[in-house]
Amino acid sequence: MLKKLIIYAAVLLSVLSCKTYNVLEEDKATRNMQDFSFDPSYQYRIRKDDKITLSVWGQDDLSVGSVYGIYNSNEVYGKWLLVDAGGNIEIPRLGTTPVIGKSVPELKEEIKNKLKKWLVNPIVDVKVLNKEIAVMGEVRNPAVIQVDKDQNTLLELVSKAGGFEMYANLKSVKILRQEGENVRVTNIDLTQMKDVPNQNIVLHPGDYIIVPSKKSKDFDKRISTIIPFATVTSAAAILFGLL
Question: Residue ranges of the Polysaccharide export protein N-terminal domain (predicted)?
């Protein structure tokens, strides 16, 4: 039994010490920020479990949670289409439609072209209801904040959460982003920014912001890490356990 524990510990140590964690040696916030700089070509891609509304002007029978109707699309009323495990939604008249990995403009154009079989000039709108960014830690109102834009700045989200608390550790603000099966964890030192409002730290739907406390134990100030095979939720739980 003791021998098995020793072997298990050795394997675990070897896994943690290899290239699983890609920690930068340079303590430069500007380098970390490059991963979150403005990308004019970025578009949110539809994901599994997304909640989507479909609006076709003047065609209530083809719409689900239509923004054109008297009652706007609202999660409370369950007026949305859920992207299933296979990456599909069920659209009235069109049936099973693959949507995962598509941008909203791409999906709108695809639906519009298919509806031209019945409609002369269909006006179509598609909306993802659950585009959100979570702000956690030393802010006045930690919350999961719904965003309509694909490009959102760090300070914009912090302001929506009521701003930083007195004990916020601005030297170690962490951002988590899902990248395929991995989660990128980037540390940003806001005290080193000469012109923070114009540095353009850009966040996308699905990102997490973690603002630790000054009273917490020291965490690697140089961190820019890839956590393999994790979700942003589990990665956030890991980080909170370390802070």
Answer: 40-128
Tens digit of pLDDT for each residue in 91-148? 999 999 999 999 999 999 999 999 999 999 999 999 999 999 999 999 999 999 999 9
Q: Please enumerate in sequence order all residues whose Cβ is within 8 A of that of 127, keeping only pairs 6 or more positions apart, or say none.
A: 52, 53, 55, 65, 67, 73, 104
Helices within 18-88 (DSSP H only) = 29-33
pTM: 0.72
The pLDDT tens digits for 164-179 are: 998 899 988 999 998 8
Q: Which domains does the chain have, with CATH numbers?
A: 22-42+131-242 (3.10.560.10), 51-128 (3.30.1950.10)
Joined tokens for residue 217: 């134990």
Burial class (CB in 10 A: 0-12, 13-18, 19+), 173: buried
- Tokens 């490009």 sit at which residue? 151
Give me the sheet containing 51-56, strands edge to edge.
81-82, 51-56, 124-128
Residue 4: partners with Cβ closer than 8 Å, 6 or more residues away = none
Whole-number Cα distances in Å, 239 to 19, 111, 136, 153, 173 = 19, 41, 11, 22, 12
What are the tens digits of pLDDT across the range 47-82? Answer: 999 999 999 999 989 999 888 765 554 554 558 999
Taking the C-alpha atoms of residue 174 and residue 166, their distance in angstroms, rounded to an integer, is: 17
The answer to whether 82 and 129 have CB atoms below 8 angstroms apart is: no
